[in-house]
Specification:
Number of helices of chain A: 3
Shape of chain A: flat
Strand content of chain A: under 5%
Number of strands of chain B: 3
Order of helices and strands of chain B: HHHEEHHHHHHHHHHHHHHHHEHH
Distance between the termini of chain B: 7 Å
Shape of chain B: globular
Radius of gyration of chain B: 26 Å
Oligomer: heterodimer
Largest sheet of chain B: 2 strands, antiparallel
Largest interface: A-B, 44 and 49 residues
Number of strands of chain A: 1
Strand order of the largest sheet of chain B: 1-2
Largest sheet of chain A: none
Helix content of chain B: over 70%
Strand content of chain B: under 5%
Number of helices of chain B: 21
């Protein structure tokens, strides 16, 4: 089986479901993972970094796009005009 | 003195690149490729065999120049620069243009020269060699936009170099000493002459580190460079600047703020970017932000983290530039809006690029994990939580773009039916080497830690730390797929701080052409004619008489001589900045050679 077939096999619904399963597992396992260094409150809350990850991602996309569309983005020939 | 150059203990690796490189245009085909590979390997082994100490000290006028200051810090940077030299040389085997090879060789030689410089003057000389040789990597793309970008690149670096030079001169006038010292800058603004010197040196360094607002040259020039040129450029300029910052300015608090801002700034622009190589260029700024911030913190752990991060960064960032460069080489575009569906034709290139993407995102078992986490953890240790959170936020953004957006829109996304194939064997070999390093360093990180300047008391693979990273990254991935619709790329560019010089230049030229020129012509011209020109003309007539009959005879002979001289000089005064840049590099190299060879 060549590389392209493997990639095609990975693009199915089942793989997607497994991926969601892994996400749930990540949060569940965070309840039992030992904490060795606690720097701030976030280190004590199980699943804190999951929440941090998705909120960061959404914030970065939404805020950047907003700044971009209202201010920074220009046509490609902007500097030549 | 000659014997000292060929001293077995210390042989300056730059010599292989700068002097050895001169033979490249004389060779052809496989012999040329073999010779280039040999030089880059010799440079690497020169670094391996180098004992710590101070070598290559030469008197020049009343100064003492030191070319070989070898300690743990300079050696680890020299290691990665020479490793990158080998990978980059293999990646550019197929390039026909000898000029491109030469500029890359001088560029690498310059960065090694900076690394081993023991005094500010030597550092400055090699600093300028880097700027003036790397600009050719942009110009050799030979399209109009890259010519323009190259000019802007050169302007930024000339200005940065001048600021650095003025700092060095003030430092010399204050201390009477040119040797590179530890000169941290505290506060926001220079308060006395000594802090002015350190401030200017710091500014000179951060221009090259692409710290905003002085960093706009980077996303402007790198995507405009040649396919292979961008690979070299992604590795050397900013990391040489990070090295200089560690050596001179570690612990300057202002760098913490600049670094964290930089890390997030790069991520924001990456969201908006359509050109894959420019997106990666913004991520250089983001990643160098971690290094600048860590340098500002200046603890042993932070400096170790910064050095390790620079080491890994050069490898994964060059791998990413090699991957997207291959796509550009094969398809002729690097714009995400024009690409898609390439997994059917370039699957291996996709895998290398994804490995680079996972490494830059600090995925466990990849190189970024063992280096980035040390820098970030150093902020945790010092309880500077705003910086810690800021850098964590930037890590999510890094994975979002480099690990997900770039591979998704090039290899999956909307299939554009582009005809493509895997790149030439040498490009693929270089990418395989880069991939091996990215995975290898993530698993066998102890040898890298042993190279770091301070003893390492940091264990990356603790359960909590691994879990924390996995949670951030995988939930970022969830966010990516949920918001995929928002991420489709538009065919736009984004304004950056180079808006001021670029749009400013238009206003400036209008001012020169319209109001200033007409004011000059109408008002000053009139006044000039009546008050100055007419009386002067009368006096001049008298002088002309004296001149024609007495002075001219004497001078006509001298003039003839001058004419012959100026005809000779005319050959180098072509009016083309490309030629001036070449002469500049040749001049600096000749100067260095004279210093070394003259007793």
């Amino acid at each position: 089986m060549n590389l392209i077939d493997i990639i095609d096999k990975l693009r199915t619904k089942i793989v997607k479901k497994i991926a969601y399963g892994i996400l749930v597992l990540l949060i569940l396992a965070d309840f039992i993972i030992p904490r060795h260094e606690i720097h701030f409150f976030g280190d004590k809350v199980p699943g804190f970094w999951s929440l941090f990850g998705i909120i960061s991602c959404v914030l970065i996309i939404v805020v950047s796009k907003w700044i971009g569309q209202n201010w920074l983005m220009r046509d490609e020939d902007y500097y030549d005009k | 003195m000659i014997s000292e150059i060929f001293n077995i203990e210390f042989f300056h690796p730059s010599a292989y690149y700068i002097i050895g490189g001169l033979l490249i245009p004389l060779l052809k085909g496989r012999v040329k490729q073999g010779y280039m590979l040999l030089l880059s390997l010799l440079a690497f082994f020169a670094v391996v065999n180098m004992p710590h100490g101070v070598y290559g000290v030469y008197e020049f006028l009343s100064w003492e120049l030191t070319f070989g200051n070898v300690d743990k810090l300079s050696k680890v940077f020299a290691y990665i620069f020479t490793i990158m030299g080998v990978i980059g040389v293999i990646y550019s085997f197929h390039v026909e243009n000898d000029g491109e090879h030469l500029s890359a060789f001088y560029y690498i030689g310059g960065s090694l020269g900076v690394t081993f410089a023991g005094d500010f003057l030597t550092l400055f000389l090699f600093w300028e060699i880097m700027a003036f040789s790397s600009v050719f990597l942009v110009w050799y793309r030979k399209i109009p936009s890259s010519v323009d970008s190259g000019f802007r690149y050169l302007l930024w670096h000339v200005i940065g170099g001048l600021i650095l030079f003025s700092g060095i001169m003030i430092q010399y006038s204050v201390s009477g000493d040119l040797s590179i010292q530890y000169l941290p800058f505290h506060g926001w603004w220079p308060t006395d002459i000594q802090s002015l010197a350190t401030f200017l040196i710091l500014i000179g360094f951060i221009v090259n580190a692409a710290v905003p607002p002085f960093g706009a040259w980077l996303p402007d020039a790198y995507p405009a460079a040649t396919v292979t040129g961008a690979v070299f450029m992604s590795a050397f300029t900013t990391k040489t600047a990070v090295y200089a910052l560690i050596r001179v300015c570690a612990g300057s608090e202002i760098l913490i703020i600049l670094g964290v801002v930089m890390a997030i700034y790069g991520v924001v622009y990456a969201v908006l970017e359509n050109d894959a190589r420019r997106l990666l260029a913004y991520h250089i700024i983001s990643q160098v932000g971690y290094m600048v911030a860590g340098t500002g913190l200046g603890t042993q752990m932070a400096i170790n983290g910064v050095v390790a991060h620079a080491f890994c960064h050069i490898l994964y960032k060059s791998l990413l530039f090699m991957g997207t460069g291959s796509v550009l080489y094969v398809t002729g575009t690097a714009k995400l809006s024009e690409l898609g569906g390439l997994y059917k034709t370039m699957p291996r290139t996709m895998i290398y690029t994804i490995i680079g993407g996972l490494a830059i995102s600090a995925f466990p078992l990849f190189s970024g994990f063992v280096s980035k986490s040390m820098t970030v953890a150093a902020f945790g240790e010092e309880h500077i939580m705003w910086a810690f959170i800021g850098l964590m936020l930037a890590s999510a953004g890094t994975f979002l773009h480099t690990g997900l957006k770039v591979p998704y829109f090039i290899w999956f996304g909307k299939d554009q039916g582009i005809k493509a194939q895997e790149p030439p064997w040498n490009m693929e070999l270089a990418m395989i080497m880069g991939s091996i390093f990215c995975i290898g360093l993530g698993i066998f990180y102890k040898p890298l830690y042993a190279l770091l300047p301070y003893p390492v008391h940091f264990e990356p693979y603790t359960a909590y730390h691994t879990w924390e990273t996995l949670q951030i990254l995988l939930f970022t991935q969830l966010g990516f797929f949920l918001l995929l619709k928002k991420l489709w790329c538009e065919n736009t560019i984004s304004m950056d701080t180079d808006w001021f010089p670029r749009k400013g230049a238009i206003v400036f030229m209008w001012f020169i052409n319209k109001p200033l020129a007409s004011f000059e012509f109408n008002l000053i011209g009139e006044v000039y004619e009546f008050i100055v020109q007419k009386p002067v003309l009368r006096v001049a007539r008298w002088f002309r008489w004296v001149d024609t009959f007495i002075v001219d005879k004497t001078f006509s002979e001298i003039a003839n001589l001058t004419l012959i001289w100026s005809r000779m000089l005319q050959a180098i005064q072509s009016g083309q900045i490309q030629h001036y840049a070449m002469i500049m590099v040749a001049g600096v190299v000749t100067l260095i050679v004279i210093v070394i060879i003259l007793p």
